[in-house]
Write a structure and sequence with these properties.
This protein is mainly α. It has six helices and no strands.
Amino acid sequence: MTHLKLIFYGLLAFIERNPIFCLILVLLAIFAPVVFEVVGWIILGIIALLLLGLGLLAWKVYKMKREMKRRFEQAANAGGFDARGFNAGGAQGFSGFGFSGNMSLEDLVRMMQQQADMRQQQAKGGGAANSSTHTSGQPNKRVNDKVGDYVDFEEVD
């Protein structure tokens, strides 16, 4: 019902924007139905072309979705993660991340994030002894406590 309402309001908006064109179409339909029949076939042809275009677009999207699913399944079942595989036309597999074929993409991302967090914690844990003694030639940055506070204010007229 909502779609019909949108179409109806669209037609009314078209009539409101183009009143002379619509008046001419109505007069042709009344006084020269043969001419209106030709105009009707032209409008029908335009609508058919639009529907054909939408159908082709839907088919392309379906085909791309099917291809992506096939590539993802190939990557899930293949062995060894190779970074060069992304540049050479697709992933060669995610088994380097411990990816199994029955795992969803969200689970894979969550697991990769956990592994990255663990590596970051290990780096912090191993570097905790060195953090007090700064070995590089650059001095530690000191930031004033008052810098960086955000104050939300509202303008009153």
